[in-house]
Amino acid sequence: MTHHIEERFVEVEGGRVFCRCVGKGARGTPLLALHGGPGAPHDYLAPLEALADERPVWFYDQLGCGRSDRPHDPSLWTLARYVRELAKVRAALGLDRFFLFGQSWGSMLAVEYALDEGQEGIAGLVLTGACLSAARFEADQRRYVRELPEKMRNAIVAAEASGDCESPEYQDAMMEYYRRHICRLDPWPEVMVKAFEQLNREIYLQMWGESEFTVTGTLKNFDLTERLGEIRVPTFLMCGEFDEATPESTREYQRRITGAESAVIEGTSHMHLIEKPDECLRRIRDFLHRAEK
């Protein structure tokens, strides 16, 4: 089935962001997808395009990412500015009522937006691979690191002590971690390879840090755990069995959000949407149908 596609740019603070809609004109409540990173392009969220048989599915590359403008201005890479950017994009796209989807860092942005800008018009939240507490996320990754072979653990300790994260030993350890907890497909699909190649390291380093398992950036103290009780819209959390966003943490977030639901996708990791798209989409569809009613 071919879906009507619309592409446009929206002016935001600091430049223009690229927006793409699949299924323009479909009758269901639109869905707006927030990609991860921070600093990645939106393209790896392509499996969500399958939902366009029922509803418009909007994607956009956050400033500095993908096909959006890429200014070199560190003052732009803040959570508060990305929240304002999301508000600008929503207004420009005319999304009075919509579902908000966030993957990984996108889940941080989605929940921060809902709590700070208000939940009026948000039909529901879909949070996949959610990080809603940087400290909890880092603790989960440290546990995963302890499960790596000793040689790799030592390489990580040495690199973090010296600040030299370019050594082959550290890179090998990081890739082994990624193969276990980011994407378990072998080989990685092209869309994953491209997402890593196109990652804006400037944004990632400033906001997160050198690697997934060591948070040194401006998001280090990010923690919405105590505010999750303020969420009043239908919410669905999903993670992989071996996800960086662990099943234990995902269930804890679910417990704190009134009426929230969650699902763990067996045999998958952080990129469960790519690893098992059919199962993930079936669960997302089911939630959207019920939330719409």
Biggest pleated-sheet summary? 8 strands, mixed
Q: Proportion of β residues? A: 15-25%
CATH first level of the largest domain:
Alpha Beta
Number of helices: 10
CA-to-CA gap between the ends?
26 Å
Domain tally: 2
By CATH, the topology of the largest domain is Rossmann fold
CATH architecture name of the largest domain: 3-Layer(aba) Sandwich
The helix content is: 25-40%
| Elements, N to C (H/E) | EEEEHEHEHHHHHEHEHH
What does this structure look like?
The chain has helices spanning 79-93, 105-117, 134-146, 150-162, 168-181, 190-197, 201-207, 247-256, 272-275, 277-292; strands spanning 5-12, 15-22, 31-34, 57-60, 98-103, 122-128, 235-240, 261-265. With 293 residues, the protein is an alpha/beta fold. The protein has two domains: 5-134 and 216-292, Rossmann fold (3-Layer(aba) Sandwich), CATH 3.40.50.1820; 138-189, no CATH class. Strands 1-2-4-3-5-6-7-8 form an eight-stranded mixed beta sheet, with helices on both faces. α1 (79-93) crosses α2 (105-117) and α4 packs across α5 (168-181). The mean pLDDT is 96.
Topology:
Layout: E1 5-12, E2 15-22, E3 31-34, E4 57-60, H1 79-93, E5 98-103, H2 105-117, E6 122-128, H3 134-146, H4 150-162, H5 168-181, H6 190-197, H7 201-207, E7 235-240, H8 247-256, E8 261-265, H9 272-275, H10 277-292
Parallel strand pairs: 3-4, 3-5, 5-6, 6-7, 7-8
Antiparallel strand pairs: 1-2, 2-4
Helix pairs in contact: 1-2, 4-5
Fill in the keyword field for this structure.
single chain, 293 residues, alpha/beta, Rossmann fold, 8-stranded mixed β-sheet, 39% helix, 16% strand
